[in-house]
Batch of 2 targets.
Target 1
Amino acid sequence: METEKKQIALSLIQPSGTITLGNYLGAIRNWVKMQDEFDCVFALADLHTITVRQEPPKMRKNILDAYASILACGIDVEKTLFFIQSHVPTHAELAWILNCYTQFGELSRMTQFKDKSVKHSDNINAGLFTYPSLMAADILLYQADYVPVGADQMQHLELTRDIANRFNGLYPNVFKVPKAYIPKTGARVMSLQDPSKKMSKSDENANGCVHLLDPPEVIMKKFKRAVTDSGSCVRYEEGKDGINNLIDIYGAVTGLSREQIERDFDGKGYGDFKTAVGEAVVEALRPIKAEYERLIADKAYLEGCYKKADEIALRISTRTLNKAKKKIGFI
Ligand code: TRP
């Protein structure tokens, strides 16, 4: 990835559970599409996941499952760097340094910190507070031009830009200041049980969230039970969050526009539409699931992939880390 002069796009995802349909349609599918246009750097943000307490056996399984699932979605290790954050020690080291250039007040204003402090009030640890400095380190180590992130991470990306500008002001030309990458076709998938909230693996109601590896009958059941309003025609309208979400999911997996979907389902009810969305999602996920099964059975192959990527990531990131340390005054 060092010979071609493409711009660098970088993003990480937390392996804090199984990959969801929301992760796939909202993020990973765009990563797959970006691989030709950019030099891509992707990774599993496993260091970020321990800001919330994890069970060791589950955590091990989640990390490997996420790695295999994302490869199965179409990340190509021949053109893209796809590594595991905790295997590359420069991330934690630069995060410490950046902590010293990040203000308490800035971190206090992060809405994710405030939300998570309410949700995990028994464990408001320092890592939860300094989470954005680690995220800034992830990004700045690779001199990324673009960072594809969802709306919920925009504030963290803005802070990353502020930290980079502040650092460069003190010690010129260390970090590239990254920009947000807003994909042309990004679906924001909402919970099937509470369509005012983003689809999330931590949804209290398990039926709200579809996982990439759910069996077909489970996926069908979740779509059939999806919460919709009291209306009946399949039409995208302000305020009808449930049906709008289903229309967007259907559009994302079939490639059809909202107008086309409305035309196709003219005169049909919500029940027929929910079945159609479920079936379309099952079909879209079928090849991914099959590829996941093939990959997860070959642990040696997976290990080979991430070890190779971890090494390259270490080499690239060490250059930036050393530059930063030298400018600061370390000997
Ligand atoms: N905080 C991001 C999330 O939860 C994950 C993440 C960690 C990330 N480091 C990153 C995303 C760097 C983009 C760039 O979604």
Target 2
Amino acid sequence: MTAPFDPAEHPHRRRNLLTGEWILVSPHRMKRPWQGQTETAPPLSLPQYDPSCYLCPGNERAGGLINPNYTHTFVFENDFAALRADTPDGTLQTNRFFQSQAETGICRVVCFSPRHDLTLARMDLPDIRRVVDLWTQQVEELSQRKEIGYVQLFENRGAMMGSSNPHPHGQVWATRRIPTEPAKEDRQQRAYLESQGAPLLLDYLNAELKAGDRVVVENEDWAAVVPFWAVWPFETLLLPRRHCQHLADLAPEERDALSDLLRRLLTIYDNLFETSFPYSMGWHGKPATPGDHPHWQLHAHFFPPLLRSSTIRKFMVGYEMLATPQRDLTAEQAAQRLRMQHQTHYLDR
Ligand code: H2U
Ligand code: ZN
């Protein structure tokens, strides 16, 4: 006789409600040996100012412009922008096989701090709050432009995630059209509101808080969970408890609470493998297209690549590329590992 189904032991599929896509969970595979590639851990200490860094105050950037001697945050137009505001509009191709469209947009780089050696996890709360304010102000300003349909804020942190520079920074890409991932979330959230009469992610968060086993950290206004459908080993989803459609909806206290939650979550991440934890993170909120978007709930995704240590990462290859994303460690096991971490940074202990 076989034992009854146990999600902590047996392979199963889980559905990502935000995309409508399925992922595969294979908990029994965690014990397999690893003889593959290992990564180089980030350097242990960096200088506070690096004369060769193109983001440090007063330095010359690759495009030849000089950064001001900024004291907190600093935003500039990306010198190698992927999109331009002045690209002529129009559908280039409507051929059945060769379809293309002109796309316009604005790309900016946002420096979180003048200090070359810091990360968001290592910054003081008032300075993290300044970053939250900066993100908010970028979303507000860019969403008001009639030629912008979506504002994507993101951060690539660490060489492993392709970040070009350790100086704490993120990016903003604002586009005419809604990009692929937010468009999937738009469809899923809209369908849920239409059928259930409430925003999907508000109902989802309440269900997660009730279940408890995927919650990582929370405060009065925010919670971070390893989503039920997480693909990356230590992926998290950060959600406000109240219905907020985008960053500009947050009250001042909610921005403070967000700064607190970010600091705690990122400290937990750094403590997990005692390293400056790499990730790609970004905010998803309501599009800037005309009309109301009551189905939208603001959230941030954190996608960290590390699996077992500061030098062993998960690869999204083979089956993931050709069939469906797969993970070994369950979301519940990952959340438990994260919850066990100190909320004081290992470098401060
Ligand atoms: P990462 O977030 O992946 O590190 O990228 C940093 C961005 O900074 C990248 O998009 C831009 C690059 O185009 N950049 C400038 O705009 N000016 C520079 O002098 C170097 C890098
Ligand atoms: Zn720097």
